[in-house]
Write a structure and sequence with these properties.
- The chain is α+β, with helices and mostly antiparallel strands.
- Among the domains are: 46 residues, Ubiquitin-associated (UBA) domain (Helicase, Ruva Protein, domain 3, Orthogonal Bundle), CATH 1.10.8.10; 133 residues, no CATH class.
- Strands 1-2-5 form a 3-stranded antiparallel β-sheet. The protein has a 3-stranded antiparallel β-sheet with strand order 6-7-10, with helices on one face. A two-stranded antiparallel ribbon has the order 3-4.
- Helix 1 packs across helix 2.
- The longest helix has 24 residues.
- The radius of gyration is 28 Å and the shape is elongated.
């Protein structure tokens, strides 16, 4: 049995950040072999994480890497069990290294990234070693990336709390326009971080989804109006439709005819109706596209100019520099979305920590 000196324990501790007693035990179990001791600690870290497998890692941070020429961007989501660890410097460094590695290797899934190499070892081994140092369940959950050629501008934004990240790709008519649109792409990413779009355009919505949403929203407004009527307050307008996908040419023609009839019934001179009609039709479309305004990025009112949709704002920004542009893709990641965080009472939390 090799003698385990204090210097050896110190060296292993500096290399792994593991507790001193664990380092001594690792060296003892490995007969003084430093590399085997590191492996022993790594395995121990994995074993400790496995003991917490029933825990849900729903906290964490989003990492973002953008190329200097605004042609590529990568997002990663790394989850932790607690917000306290998510704010830890070691965890934040792990997120930074992870997004750098994903960007460099162009890995498009967490599993693919784990198979890449970093400084002579697998990224999987590196990641697990860092998790062992931190001592909490940590997971690399998602990776997203966008890229484009000379006529594409790609940019992104991570909110100050590092819990929300967005990347945007804008296709332009020329490389010159694309260069000018890079800042606009970041502004749109900031918009998306706040407004939570789930899809690019109303054209992406499934017909069954729209039908179900329409029924649900109309019933909700009717119930709300019952309460408003009881309180003798103004009632909300009950829409017939909720998406531009439903506003066919026949629907719009019927709406226009109805508005004309109403204006004539109000005594409006027929000759001024063409001047009033565009505004009325715009209001009809606004009232009957609430789903689009909520969930489709291109159709949302732009936070920097709510008189325009996001699509219109991007087109106008390109026009101002003599070109054309449209958003062709976006990805929005929010830490923990879709995960249900486990809630323990205090006693259960203490018991879990002592297990």
């Amino acid at each position: 049995m090799a003698e385990i000196s204090a210097a050896m324990v110190k060296e292993l501790r500096q290399a792994t950040d593991a507790p001193m007693m664990d380092c001594k035990k690792a060296l003892t179990e490995s007969n003084g072999d430093m590399e085997k001791a590191k492996e022993w600690l790594r395995e121990r870290g994995i074993a400790q994480a496995a003991k917490k497998a029933d825990r849900v890692a729903a906290e964490g941070s989003i990492g973002l890497k953008i190329s200097p020429d605004f042609k590529r961007a990568t997002l990663v989501e790394v989850n932790s069990e607690t917000d306290f660890v998510a704010k830890n410097e070691g965890f934040q460094n792990l997120v930074s290294t992870t997004v750098e590695q994903a960007y460099k290797t162009e890995a498009d899934t967490a599993e693919a990234l784990r198979q890449t190499d970093l400084e002579g070892k697998s990224f999987s081994a590196f990641f697990d070693e860092e998790v062992a140092k931190i001592g909490e369940k940590i997971e690399l959950r998602r990776i997203a990336a966008l890229s484009g050629g000379d006529n594409v501008a790609v940019n992104g934004y991570v909110h100050s709390n590092t819990r929300i990240g967005v990347i945007i790709a804008i296709e332009c008519d020329s490389a010159k326009t694309a260069e000018a649109m890079a800042p606009v792409a970041k502004q749109v990413a900031m918009h998306a971080s706040a407004m939570k779009p789930t899809t690019l355009s109303y054209k992406d919505f499934d017909a069954d989804f729209i039908a179900a949403e329409t029924k649900g929203r109309i019933e909700a407004i009717k119930k709300e109006n019952e309460e408003l009527a009881r309180l003798k307050k103004p009632l909300k307008n009950v829409p017939e439709y909720i998406s531009m996908a439903q506003l066919t040419d026949d629907v719009l023609s019927a709406a226009e005819a109805k508005i004309k009839e109403e204006l004539l019934a109000e005594g409006k001179p027929e000759k001024i109706i063409p001047n009033i009609l565009p505004g009325k039709m715009a209001r009809f479309i606004e009232d009957n596209t609430t789903l689009d305004k909520e969930q489709a990025l291109l159709d949302q009112n732009y936070v920097l100019d709510d008189k325009k949709t996001v699509a219109q704002a991007v087109a106008d920004a390109a026009k101002a520099v003599g070109g054309t542009a449209e958003i062709v893709a976006f990805v929005r990641l929010e830490v923990g979305e879709g995960l249900e965080k486990k809630k323990d009472d205090f006693a259960a939390e203490v018991a879990a920590q002592m297990a």
